[in-house]
Write a structure and sequence with these properties.
single chain, 310 residues, mainly beta, globular, disordered N terminus
């Protein structure tokens, strides 16, 4: 119970640190780092699976059962924008686990010009996150976790540095095939601004549950996201997903994110904005997952996830 109190204290402290106003920086932290979560709508803090990439979404979803696993993820956006992440997980005794990882986003190369529109060269824009995570079993059904993130961004000759933290709780009842989770994400501060004005991080609170049907291999997930922004419509806060899991070696999933659907809506259509789908297989020590989603009105984004048990 003492560990549980420490987790809640961390949640409250980090939330107070993150309560800032103004535009946000390091917004790449909002993108999913898991093909499975991407297939189920892009936000999920309750899914209990032997999938190391889930720790990027809730640090309490890692555990000793993922001992010695390496996870790699890659997603392409439109116009040459690319996202990738890597993670290594290790058990710490029988009740704990630690992970180290990184996430990277490249926005491509841009032309550098003078005010007279004379091209003088090129520059690139990148965001990087270096992560250290720890999780611990608080009881038979409860698990807590924390993550510390060192953030770096480069925009031509301007750079920015930040420090953030995640904290989460996970509940799993194997007999009822029910799991739930809550996570405080990206709480922290920009330590070094690009120029002279610091900006807040895209901190968020997410909570949700996953429930497998009693007599069918389907699992329903509902996640409440963007809980720090109440200036949007009610239904934009909820992300829904359904996955088909006939065995531990195969899954298919679909999801819907109402906020992305509204953000990507055009007068000419784009009715598929916010919908996502994917699937995965396990072959011996390899887990492979793929997913597709429309983050831009003119292109589909595909994500590939690979996990290997060493």
């Amino acid at each position: 119970m003492r560990s549980l109190y420490v987790i809640f204290l961390f949640l409250l402290t980090a939330a107070g640190t993150a309560a800032q106003n103004g535009g946000e920086v390091f917004t790449f932290l909002r993108y999913p780092s898991s093909a499975r979560v991407n297939a189920l709508g892009g936000s999920n803090v309750s899914l209990v699976e032997r999938d190391p990439s889930l720790v990027f979404h809730n640090p309490a979803l890692s555990g000793a059962e993922m001992d010695g696993m390496v996870n790699l993820n890659y997603m392409n956006f439109s116009a040459g924008v690319r996202f990738g992440s890597a993670l290594y997980t290790r058990a710490l005794g029988e009740t704990g686990a630690w992970s180290v990882g990184a996430a990277y986003m490249s926005y491509g190369n841009f032309r550098q010009t003078t005010p007279e529109n004379t091209v003088t060269g090129q520059f690139s824009v990148e965001d990087i996150s270096l992560n250290a995570m720890y999780s611990h079993n608080l009881s038979e059904r409860w698990r807590g976790g924390i993550a510390i993130k060192f953030l770096y961004s480069s925009l031509e000759s301007y750079t920015s540095i930040g420090l953030a933290a995640d904290a989460g709780l996970s509940y799993y009842d194997e007999e009822r095939n029910f799991s739930a989770g809550i996570a405080l994400k990206h709480a922290g501060a920009q330590l070094k601004a690009y120029y002279d004005e610091r900006q807040p991080l895209p901190w968020d609170i997410q909570a949700g549950f996953s429930k497998r049907l009693e007599h069918a291999p389907f699992r329903l997930s509902l996640t409440a996201a963007y809980l720090t922004s109440w200036d949007m419509g009610f239904f934009k806060h909820f992300v829904a997903g359904v996955d088909f899991t006939p065995s531990d070696n195969f899954w298919l999933g679909v999801g819907f994110n109402p906020k992305i659907n509204a953000d990507m809506k055009l007068q000419s259509g784009n009715s598929l904005g916010g919908f996502s789908a994917g699937g995965g297989v396990r072959i011996k020590v390899f887990d492979v997952g793929v997913s597709v989603v429309r983050y831009h009105p003119s292109a589909l984004s595909a994500m590939l996830s690979l996990s290997v048990t060493l």
